[in-house]
Design goal:
The complex is a heterodimer. By secondary structure, chain A is an all-alpha fold. Chain A has a single domain, classed as Cytochrome c-like domain (Cytochrome Bc1 Complex, Chain D, domain 2, Orthogonal Bundle). In chain A, 59% of the residues lie in helices and 0% in strands. The radius of gyration of chain A is 18 Å and the shape is globular. Chain B is α/β, with parallel strands linked by helices. Chain B folds into 2 domains: 205 residues, FAD/NAD(P)-binding domain, CATH 3.50.50; 122 residues, 3-Layer(bba) Sandwich (FAD/NAD(P)-binding domain). Chain B is 28% helix and 24% strand. In chain B, strand 23 and strand 24 form a beta hairpin. Chain B is globular and about 65 Å long. Chains A and B meet through helix 2 of A and helix 2, helix 9, strand 22, strand 23 and helix 10 of B.
Chain lengths: 102, 430
């Protein structure tokens, strides 16, 4: 096979592959901005709702998965957590755990 | 302007990846100064506009100049304003200063934009400011009320007597006063337009709040609800349960009752079948995207709403202008809510940062909605949803199996409802 053609084909496919996997460079930031309406900008609550900023990633992710799977009682989070893919729950947990608490 | 824009366009390509880290030569003591990539003008400082302003500054690391224009110098929240009518909160408690946005570098302009020249990228102001240019424009104007569909309401005098109180502010307080002055055995009549309108559960929450007040102060009074829709448009079973259990016998709900005209002097609402007299009338007319959206040529859906590209909130009618909030032609199952307008603001801010730096916006945006409704002074019900972008349908789609409503009304959600307000106000303004 023509090596130049092969290389061109690989180069053409690579960025498409990356996009198909949903690699928004700001994925965690975008998802955390869904949380901010109730839990404060970047997860730093001003009160009345739990703060999420700076919480350990594993704890956040476990909580979100338990809400999603109906294993953790909730008023609303069991409904919202079902709207996200597991990769999205991971990305938002990573982002929030890296934020500064109030 | 032309030279400046040309400069900006050229600069946009050059500054990819370097805008954030560059230190201007000769400015070693101020390494935080970024090379500006352009100016975004935002018309309308509500849930959508304020959020976009703050997040544009945050996410551009200060490299986008942001001007936020509103007629009113302070923010009064529509969500929670029914509590002022019910008497458990004051207007002061739902009013917030915008001054902390200045700490993010947002420039606040108190004025009214009277015209947009999108060919020249200029806006005209009514009072204080000279014509001003922009690189991209955000229009987040809310709704205007279609009084032209109700002949008897088509005068300033009629509109000063029969209130809507569907924009929080003086009318909120005035409606409360009208209800306080009502005879002890009087009738409050509220009319609800056909969906879509701003805040689907809002009218039913208002019925609860008026009933909450009347139950204490005028237990012989009644409420008539003339709903143009065939059923309660949001959280129906939960509202019905509250009416039945908390306000038994007070509320006469009439579906399929579209108000066609108002006899202001006779205090009567007219449907095709009925004339309904009341002591206090609260007419919610049909709604559409506000006037500035119309005069700018942004209304292109049903002659009422502004269609947008859900990857950027950019108008499908006029390139370079982004539309947010209630004025948009909603995606399927997406409510016209303050919460959703906030989400629109963030989607637009993220996309504009990418576009102004010569990059493609995120192709997989996700938005979420939560609406809390107070059925008394303490008990609350909610509806929630999550919306992911579907590339095939080119719109945001509610995720099957996600979202829902409260299991029952509760005081726990009452606390969450008020905390939601504190946090979303802070998310926009602090």
């Amino acid at each position: 096979m023509n090596r130049t053609l092969l290389l061109a084909a690989v180069l053409a496919i690579a960025p498409l592959g990356a996009r198909a996997q949903g690699t928004d460079p700001n994925l965690g930031r975008m998802l955390a901005s869904n949380c901010a309406n109730c839990h404060g900008t970047n997860g730093a609550s001003v009160g009345g709702m739990p703060s999420l900023a700076g919480k350990p990633r594993a704890a956040l992710l476990q909580m979100l998965r338990e809400y999603r799977d109906g294993k953790r009682p909730a008023t609303i989070m069991h409904q919202l957590a079902k709207g996200y893919t597991d990769a999205q729950l991971e990305a938002v947990s990573t982002y929030l755990s890296a934020q500064k608490p109030n | 302007m032309t030279n400046r824009r040309k400069f900006l366009q050229a600069g946009g390509a050059v500054t990819i990846g370097s805008a954030v880290s560059s230190i201007l030569p000769g400015c070693a003591s101020t390494p935080e100064i970024r090379k500006p990539v352009g100016r975004v003008m935002i018309i309308g400082a509500g849930y959508g506009g304020q959020t976009a302003a703050k997040y544009l500054r945050l996410w551009s690391a200060g490299s986008i100049e942001v001007m936020l224009v509103d007629r009113e110098p302070t923010f009064i929240s529509c969500p929670m304003s029914n509590l002022v009518i019910g008497g458990s909160r004051t207007l002061a408690e739902i009013t917030r200063s915008r001054n902390r946005l200045k700490e993010h570098g947002v420039q606040l302009l108190t004025d009214e934009v009277t015209a947009v020249d999108h060919a020249r990228k200029m806006v005209k102001f009514k009072d204080r400011y000279a014509d001003m240019g922009y690189d991209r424009l955000i229009v987040s104007p809310g709704v205007d009320l279609m009084y032209d569909t109700l002949p008897g309401m088509n005068s300033a005098d009629a509109q000063s007597q029969v209130l809507h109180a569907w924009r929080a502010g003086p009318q909120t307080v005035a409606l409360r006063k009208q209800i306080e002055s009502m005879p002890d055995d009087g009738t409050f009549v509220i009319s609800i337009p056909l969906a879509p309108y701003r805040c689907p559960p809002g009218p039913y929450e208002r019925v609860c709040q008026v009933a909450h007040y009347l139950k204490q102060a005028k237990p012989k009074a009644r409420i008539v609800v003339l709903d143009a829709n065939e059923n309660i448009t949001s959280k129906g079973p939960l509202f019905r349960a509250a009416w039945e259990q908390l306000y038994k016998g007070m509320i006469d709900y009439r579906p399929n009752s579209e108000v066609k005209d108002v006899d202001v002097r006779g205090k009567t609402l007219k449907t095709d079948f009925d004339n309904v007299k009341g002591d206090v009338l609260n007419v919610l007319p049909s709604m559409r995207a506000a006037d500035i959206a119309r005069s700018t040529g942004l209304i292109n859906a049903n002659n009422r709403w502004c269609s947008v590209d859900w990857l950027s909130m950019e108008s499908t009618a006029v390139p370079g202008i982004h539309v947010l909030g209630d004025a948009t032609m909603s995606a399927p199952a997406m409510p016209k809510s303050g919460h959703m307008a906030n989400q629109h603001g963030k989607l637009a801010a993220a996309a504009i940062v990418e576009i102004m730096n010569g990059r493609q916006p995120n192709q997989e945006p996700v938005l979420a909605n939560t609406c809390y409704s107070f059925v008394s002074d303490k008990e609350v019900i909610h509806v929630s949803s999550v919306h992911q972008y579907d590339a095939k349908q080119k719109t945001l789609v509610a995720v099957p199996g996600s979202g829902g409503v409260s299991a029952q009304r509760s005081e726990i959600e009452g606390a969450y409802g008020w905390a939601w307000a504190q946090n979303i106000w802070s998310d926009m303004l602090s």
